[in-house]
Amino acid sequence: MAQLKSLSASVSVGPQLQPSDMAVLAAQGYASVINNRPDDEEAGQPSSSEVEAAATAAGLAYLHAPIRGMPEDQAVARVAERLKADADANARTAMFCRSGMRSTAAWAMAQRLDGADADNLRAAAASAGYDLSRLPL
């Protein structure tokens, strides 16, 4: 399984996850998975429907909010909604895309909608290895 990095106590992010990773995530205590990767972005990647089927079978909530380039408002709003539901349930969330960068940007933008401090979000992202210095937060 790809290495996930913590953005907060309840949200981790990383590169492409495989359907076989879903049971592992559930065993690690994650409650949901957010897939920010568009289908057919790269040859050989699993489709969203394949990941969703495995996530559902493992008992995980699943959201596909694909992002190409800068996260769009609609994708950010959907991510924010899932993150809020997980936070309200005191649940852990795993997010992924090709490298984790778009997921990190979507997480930060979603947190800003909830009033989080931009500098703190950039620092959390940097500690996970993602540079959001040019992201308008």
Structural commentary:
The protein has 137 residues and is of the alpha/beta class. The chain is 41% helix and 15% strand. It has 5 helices and 5 strands. A 5-stranded mixed β-sheet has the order 1-2-5-3-4, sandwiched between helices. The N and C termini lie far apart (31 Å). The model has no long low-confidence stretch (mean pLDDT 96).
Number of strands: 5
Secondary structure class reads alpha/beta
Mean pLDDT metric: 96
Q: Please give the radius of gyration in angstroms.
A: 14 Å
How many angstroms does the end-to-end distance come to?
A: 31 Å
Fraction of helical residues: 40-55%
Shape designation: globular
Please count the helical segments. 5
H-E order: EEHEHEHEHH
Please give the largest β-sheet. Answer: 5 strands, mixed
Strand order of the largest sheet: 1-2-5-3-4
Catalogue the unreliable spans. Answer: none
Percent in strands: 15-25%
